[in-house]
């Protein structure tokens, strides 16, 4: 690296002013810089060098990995409970409605469970996306513009493309990194982003179905609610409404304590599935908005930080492209091949 730098000429310099010389990490050429320039770009290979490297590890890697594995285990057990507990809690009910409804319920449950578990496994255990390996470090090997806008990852000790980010939890650079998700214990990147979105879709549909079937079965198993006569309530306006509300809540609680274990599980299934449904729907909506804008979560943050000067093309074509639709459509419609590509996964 140093040898090639000494043999090089100084016309590969980007910012020539004073006599401050340094070495480009990308091609190994010697560059003359303006004094105290913290960040510079090589005029030959295009690599960006930052002289203010702040490499700080706040937590060891194995600690982060252990934390991720714990989250994944807890989530897997919870999913297993939702599936098995849900099947057990409503089994008596679905066949009491009709035999056809029972069969339909079991087919739908099997499809939703298989889809959710498989997409979860793919997004959790599949590599999120490894940036391509490039040759770097010496002038004859690195051609002009080969490392354009590449930076150097001091953790991985290799070039980092403009579309890659280093994840300190995974301890590696991830291509098109969206975010590090603690619940799947993995990064969401170019290789598993589609699986993650499929998991969110599947989980949202599953929780909608669980809340529907647990509410439907729970209404049949709920003990009769005995109200005290509301006629003795007197007063007017707000005071009367508060008293009536208290009376109704008291009647509901007194009937809820008579619920069987199956009934309590149904209540738990309903409450937890509705809570999950809300959280997952918000996350899915946010993800679809970023895909529609042709961005990832991290590129959205960086575009905000840079004042939004890099404007991406919004549109449904980003969503189609994300899910791989053009590859099947373009085989039949070759004239659409020239449409601009922004969000490539
Ligand atoms: Zn260079
Ligand atoms: Zn890295
Ligand atoms: Zn990560």
Automatic annotation (TrEMBL):
Annotated GO CC locations: endoplasmic reticulum; Golgi apparatus
GO MF assignments: protein-cysteine S-palmitoyltransferase activity
PANTHER family, per database record: PALMITOYLTRANSFERASE ZDHHC16
Lineage: Eukaryota, Viridiplantae, Streptophyta, Embryophyta, Tracheophyta
Highest rank taxon of the organism: Eukaryota
Entry's transmembrane regions: 71-91, 103-125, 196-219, 265-285
The family this protein is said to belong to: Belongs to the DHHC palmitoyltransferase family.
Free-text domain note: The DHHC domain is required for palmitoyltransferase activity.
Enzyme class name: transferase
Subcellular location: Endomembrane system
Gene Ontology annotations of biological process type: protein targeting to membrane
Leader sequence segment: none
Membrane topology annotation: Multi-pass membrane protein
Residue ranges annotated for the Palmitoyltransferase DHHC domain, each copy included: 149-301
Enzyme Commission code: 2.3.1.225
Catalytic activity: L-cysteinyl-[protein] + hexadecanoyl-CoA = S-hexadecanoyl-L-cysteinyl-[protein] + CoA
Protein name: S-acyltransferase
Sorted UniProt keywords: Acyltransferase, Membrane, Transferase, Transmembrane, Transmembrane helix
